[in-house]
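User: Sequence in, structure out. Go.
Assistant: Echoing your sequence, followed by the structure tokens.
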Amino acid sequence: MKNQGGNVISKEHSKHTALVRPAFGTFNRKEWAIVGAPCTNIKLLAGQVISALSVNYKCAYVDTTHNDHVVQLPGKLASGAVFEYTDEINYRQLNYSADFNSFTLRETFAAADLVIANGNHHQCKAQVVIISENKRASLQKRIDQLTNVQLLLLADGTDDVFDFIKDAIPNWQQLPLYQVSDIENIVAFFNAQMEKAKPVLNGLVLAGGKSQRMGFDKGEVNWHGKAQRYHMADMLKAFCSDVYISCRADQQQEIDASYTSLPDTFTGLGPYGAILSAFREKPDSAWLVIASDLPLMDEPALQYLTDNRNPSSVATAYNSPQIEFPEPLITIWEPKSYPVLLSFLAQGYSCPRKVLINNDVTLLNAQNPDVLTNVNTPDELERIKKVLHQKIAAE
């Protein structure tokens, strides 16, 4: 429901399902508002920081125009269009006529790794405060907005933190304090924050398939001294914080109680639903998703995947040498892939490979391509048995 200003009005409703919400701020999980300086100085600082960080991260900047005299809508918006998309040579531009509410903003900025905003106009869940004598009064008016200050900067001509800042931020002495011109240390601060905020990696073994082509549960095949789904889960423990075995709800009682199961809540979608169910459970975690029918998978392949993980991408995946497409079921899916997966589902697609093909992903070539071999039929099973027997005999 909207009020006259077009903003969404949220009303509590007792029938709403309790969901784990991602740790978003106004725009993104990782966002900082720079306050305490003239807008021109904030733009300059943001530009320097973004220029340095953009080598490794997708950065976004938020500001408000000061062209108060401009009242005419641009382009075809003036004619009544809702959107106007322009494909420029070096960039794309999309103009909107509608207001953005908090839900729209988070959706729009979901692909960014971090957001820096002009705090004179926009609030974020973390702040960088510039101590500038000529903005003392303005900063004092914004004292209530300083809810999570993480960095203090001294402007030229200012040699100490204001007393009202000290009173408002009890731990101010534990915060890093640099000159605003010390770009090297400021960039180092943001790099450290980004590394600290790197999403935890959990493991998800896909064992909820019906194995119709095989004729029996592939996850139960004993290739390495135990059922394959448990063998895969045990391998993932060395690389993941927590490991889950994905299953159908009717399978959950079959899973060994010493392993944590995660039943599908997006049903009828195969592996796609399993991945979405994992993000529904822990939306701020990354998920190393692996199929249970990869009998030749080994720890070096998992080590190579995790060592080359790129949290800035939607996912990090192996490239299939047979079909030259990403292998979606031995892939690290980052938290930013969750809304992407939901968006594809809303458009009628439930193929995780299609998501990888049409998004920014980091693709790796397996050092040993055999590890990507999956088993779907009895004939393939017999062939892999021979490969494993030869491997054991050679050891």
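User: And one key feature?
Assistant: The mean pLDDT is 90.
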